[in-house]
Amino acid sequence: MRLLDLFSCAGGAGTGYHQAGFEVVGVDIDDQPRYPFEFHRADALEFLADHWHEFDVIHASPPCQSYSDLAKRNGNADAWPRLIEPVREALVTTNRHWILENVEGAPMIDPVMLCGTQFPGLRVIRHRLFETSFPLPALPHGKHPLVFTHDKRKNHYGKLDQDTSFVQVTGGGNCTIANARDALGGLDWMNKHELNECVPPAYTSYIGRHAMAALEDREIAA
Predict the structure, then answer these.
(1) SS3 at position 84
(2) What confidence score (pLDDT) does residue 217 get?
(3) Residue 44: CB atoms within 10 Å
(4) Is the distance from CB of 58 to CB of 3 less than 8 angstroms?
(5) Which H or E element spans position 60?
(6) Which neighbouring-strand residues pair with 5?
(7) pLDDT of 161-184, one tens digit each?
(8) What is the Cα–Cα distance from 15 to 36, expressed in whole angstroms?
(9) How does pLDDT run across 181-216, given as a tens digit for each residue?
(10) CB neighbour list of residue 187: distance below 8 Å, 6 or more residues apart
(11) CA distances (Å), 140 to each of 28, 114, 120, 132, in order?
(12) Is the model's pLDDT at 68 over the cut of 80?
């Protein structure tokens, strides 16, 4: 089964789908020299229009900056493209199974939220929303743990070891790049900027298994 990874960045999401058994092809408007699978530099929607029929499942992670909390606080959300609606419309027209991913605050329809606390081995919280064309069960979401900090104003300063605790990766971050890579699932090929933006592979491995099941159900129904 082949999966098209649109707005691929450096391959966090694609790696999870590969772990779930898909042959993955990535597309991004910027060069991604460390992307670990077949890659095409192209406009995502243009590539989708030309090649959708070559794939069984399509994943899309359009830019999230316009929907982020930081943009809302800074009052500059309009400076970024808002692509959720046109991307969703393009995905629906393919008649393929699809996944649309973005941050909390994005205009998603009945999404499932995934968090790093739901996956053994991850050490980040990193909430992400996933809207899918197939059933995706939600996972139990418990209390967040304390996160390692260098901020002496925090009550738990000095009480956590960044090599074993949950860490903050985004923005300036508060951990070494080695710990950021480990906390997100062993992404040892990514630089700091790529780690800041990536979807942890554990999330898409989980989603990919359900996508595979949906494809099998479609084959049986046919």
Answers:
(1) helix
(2) 86
(3) 22
(4) yes
(5) strand 57-60
(6) 26, 59
(7) 999 999 999 866 679 999 999 999
(8) 8
(9) 999 999 999 999 999 989 999 999 999 999 999 999
(10) 10, 12, 15, 181, 194, 195, 198, 201
(11) 33, 9, 13, 18
(12) no
Q: Distance of alpha carbon 164 from its chain centroid, rounded? A: 23
Distance CA 54, CA 48 (A): 10
Q: Is 117 helix (H, G, I), strand (E, B) or coil?
A: helix
Helix and strand tally (H, E) in the chain?
7, 7
Pair of tokens at residue 115:
């968090």
Decide if 59 contacts 3 (C-beta within 8 A).
yes
Beta bridge partners of residue 59, listed in sequence order: 5, 99
**How many residues in the chain?**
222
pTM: 0.91
For helices 201-221 and 12-19, the axis angle rounded to 10 degrees is 50
Any idea what the Cα angle at residue 35 is, between residues 14 and 198, rounded to 5°?
A: 55
The two structure tokens encoding residue 222: 């046919």
Q: Are strands 57-60 and 97-102 parallel, antiparallel or unpaired?
A: parallel
Q: Which region, left, alpha or beta, applies to residue 208 given φ > 0 means left and ψ of -120 to 50 means alpha?
A: alpha
Structure tokens at 192: 């700091």
Q: Which residue has the tokens 């929907």?
A: 67
